[in-house]
C-alpha cells in the first residue's frame, strides 16, 4: 500500500503558490458547465496584447515571424513597403465562421449539459454508446468527419468507458481512510462535483472535451482549412474554431482553445499572427508572409496547449497536497484529466499534404505524447487499464510524474526551466 506522504526534502512552495490560482474565476473547470464551460471574459487587458507569451519567442522565431510584416520587398524613401499589416476587421464573420461555430456548438452538445455532463449530474440519461455516437456523427460537418483519426479511436474507447461509469453511479473511489485507490471495476460518479471517473483514474469526458479543443477536433479542422486557397474568409474560420471572437480581442468572450491560450499568455501573439495572415492573404505578392504567419499561429496554438498541461499538472499537485476528503481527491484527477486531454488530442494527427503546414502539422510527435501519457499512467490503447488513480496514494510519486512530463515538454519545445515555472503560474494575455 502506498501512503499519501510528504517528501521532507521538498518545500512544496510552487504547488502551494499554484493553489492561490484556485481563487480565480473558473476557466474550463466545469463550473456551471454547459460544454462551453470555459467561455470567459478575459482579465483586464488593453485589447490585443502585443507581448509574446511565456516561452514563445523560440517558436515564433523558428517560423520566421511574430505576426508583423517581414518587409520582403525592397523599399526606398519614396516607396510604400509591401506586405503591411492592417488592423483586424471581420465584417463577414457570421458567414465565414459559420461551420466553425457549428462545430464548436456540436462539441458543446456532446460534452456539455445536453449529453455527457448532463449524464454525470443525472439531468439526462446516457445508457448506451449510441447516444454518444449519434451526437459525434450529427451535423454537417460533424465532429466525426473533421476529427483527427488517431483521436477518433480514443473517443470510441472513451464512449465505452463513459457508459460504464454512468451505470456505476455514485461511488467513493478511495477507501474510508483516504489512503488507497479503490475504484471498483468501472469507477463511477465521484465527489460533490459529480466527476465521472473510470477505474483507471480518468474523468473520461475531459479527454473528449479538452482533446477537442486541441489536435482532436478544432486544431485538426483549422489545419485542414490551410490546404486549399487561403483568403480572408479562411482566416475568419480558423480564428473562430480556435475560440476567439469576431474582434480578435482578448477582453472579449473567449472559449475552447483560445481561452486556454489567453490564460497561458499566448493570445496576444496568436492574434497578431492571425491579423498578419489576414492582411497578407489579400495580396498575391505576400503569400510567403501569409504562410509564415499561419505557421506561427499554429505553433503557438500547439505550444499553449502543452503549457496548459504544465499548469494543470502543478495545480493538481497543489490539490493533492491539500486534499482531505473524497471530493478533494476527485478534483485532483479532474485537473489532470483536463491537462492530459489537451495533449491527447494531438495523438495520431496526420500532417497536411499541402499548404503552409504541409508535412509538418505539429512539433510534438506520437512518441512524445506516449512518453507523457506513460509518465501519468495513461494507457492510450485501453483507458480503463490506466494506473493514474494510484497517484492519489503518493504525492512524491505524483511530483516525480510532473517533473518527468515537464522535462519532456522542455525537450520538445526547447524551453528552459524558467519558462516551465512561468507556465505553472501563468500571466494571462
Explain the overall architecture.
The chain has 429 residues and is an all-alpha fold. The protein contains 18 helices and 4 strands. It has helices at residues 13-19, 57-63, 93-96, 98-111, 116-121, 129-137, 143-146, 149-168, 204-213, 218-224, 232-242, 256-263, 267-281, 287-322, 326-344, 366-375, 395-413, 417-424; strands at residues 40-41, 188-190, 195-197, 253-254. The strands form 2 sheets. The chain has a two-stranded antiparallel ribbon with strand order 1-4. A two-stranded antiparallel sheet has the order 2-3. Strand 2 and strand 3 form a beta hairpin. Helix 2 (57-63) packs antiparallel against helix 14 (287-322), helix 14 (287-322) runs antiparallel to helix 15 and helix 14 packs antiparallel against helix 17. The longest helix has 36 residues, at 287-322. The termini are far apart. The model is unreliable at 1-13, 20-27 and 29-78 (pLDDT under 50).
Whole-number radius of gyration?
21 Å
Strand content: under 5%
What is the arithmetic mean of pLDDT? 87
Strand order of the largest sheet: 1-4
Give the N-terminus to C-terminus distance in angstroms.
44 Å
Oligomer: single chain
Order of helices and strands: HEHHHHHHHEEHHHEHHHHHHH
Short description, anyone?
The protein is mostly helical and 429 residues long.
Draw up the topology in text.
Elements lengths: L12 H7 L20 E2 L15 H7 L29 H4 L1 H14 L4 H6 L7 H9 L5 H4 L2 H20 L19 E3 L4 E3 L6 H10 L4 H7 L7 H11 L10 E2 L1 H8 L3 H15 L5 H36 L3 H19 L21 H10 L19 H19 L3 H8 L5
Antiparallel strand pairs: 1-4, 2-3
Keywords:
2% strand, 18 helices, 4 strands, 429 residues, two-stranded antiparallel ribbon, 50% helix, mainly alpha, disordered N terminus
